């Protein structure tokens, strides 16, 4: 028997279903629903502007919540990018460029844009069931997580982009570094690594936290850093969007 969330997904596909951008409730958790495989939750809150129209997305991942704004052409570009990979055959159909209503009333018709919002939300939710490990898919990761999508400059240098800052509540859940295991017959060695933020040697008694990339920092240093930018100070890669591994 399908869980309540699965039934809601099926009901949303009925021809007589009214447009809705409400998030499914969590009552289906723990019942084997396919949607629970991906920790990302996507909601299209609405749209704004007229040239171009921007769709407002709220993304949830664990304790982290952030908003991004996307154009419809960026949704289509995402689909085109994924279609060139081995995932092509399993991808859901993207929202159509036009409908009968848009051809009669124009692309800025409000009911048409409301329906397009619903279709974008449905497409992205289906996409995350096909690609549940979002962090491992660069195109989808950037689309959902970067406040501003990067673009190519004339000299082919990628500029712009950047993942959102990390919620302070998420930073507190970063795991502590394990003490170094001594070799047989030796004493526990002092931690000689230097925190690259404060340039101080990290002592075994300090509160040292580990990012998913395995780099270690003083908690007070990395917590201040991550609430301003979501990158590791050493490898410059995205540090953490939420803490699904630590909750």
Automatic annotation (TrEMBL):
Keywords: Metal-binding, Transferase, Ubl conjugation pathway, Zinc, Zinc-finger
E.C. numbers: 2.3.2.27
GO molecular function, one term: phosphatidylinositol binding
Boundaries of every PX domain copy: 1-151
Source superkingdom: Eukaryota
Pfam families per the UniProt record, alphabetical: PX, zf-RING_2
Reactions this protein catalyses: S-ubiquitinyl-[E2 ubiquitin-conjugating enzyme]-L-cysteine + [acceptor protein]-L-lysine = [E2 ubiquitin-conjugating enzyme]-L-cysteine + N(6)-ubiquitinyl-[acceptor protein]-L-lysine
Ranges for domain RING-type: 195-236
Matches recorded under CDD domains: PX_domain
The protein's name in its UniProt record: RING-type E3 ubiquitin transferase
